[in-house]
Amino acid sequence: MKLITIIFGFLLTVLGVWNFAAVPDPGLGALMPAIFGLLAILFGLLQGRWEHKNPLFGAVMMAILTLIGSIRGLWNLVILLTGGTPALPTDLIWIRSLRGLVSIIFIGLVILLVENVWRHWKEFGHFLGDWLARVVLTIFYFTVLVPFGLGVRLFADPLHIKSTPAEQWRPRTTGDQNFDEVLRQY
């Protein structure tokens, strides 16, 4: 499986560079498949190094992300083959479709050739979830909760602490309910 992962990463890198060359106005997004391919090669080289972690599932994650990015190319390939007018140039359609097909084949090979795929995938998911939860929640805390808390602390008084009258009693409206309305609460 190590060799298949490295071959998948190499094919993905070649298709990513070809995509970058074919796009009229290339940006960093055009190189993402090549970056995913390099990561898949790295995961292939690291396979078998750890007892409890299998980098193969990182390569599968790269394949899933590549497949998600190739859906538009696969859809335009279907439109092109049925005789319609696709939204992309023909060479980009073939590049993106090949990326998607290579990803589907790799995911299928992993499912067929690796024993206990589900158990290993869950282990990888737990590892990724633990790491991402810490990162995402830290970012959420410092970008949402801290500014909100500072704003409330500096500019608002939701507990009416600053305006403390001599008498602490505040009249509350109880509502005008008769006995029939009390019986029909819902």
Provide structural commentary.
It is a single chain. By secondary structure, this protein is an all-alpha fold. It has a domain at 1-112. Helices cover 69% and strands 0% of the residues. It is built from seven helices and no strands. The chain has helices spanning 2-22, 32-46, 56-69, 71-81, 90-113, 117-155, 179-183. α3 runs antiparallel to α5 and α4 packs across α5. The longest helix has 39 residues, at 117-155. The mean pLDDT is 81.
Short structural description:
By secondary structure, the chain is mainly α. 69% of the residues lie in helices and 0% in strands. It has helices spanning 2-22, 32-46, 56-69, 71-81, 90-113, 117-155, 179-183.
Give the secondary structure arrangement, pairings included:
Layout: H1 2-22, H2 32-46, H3 56-69, H4 71-81, H5 90-113, H6 117-155, H7 179-183
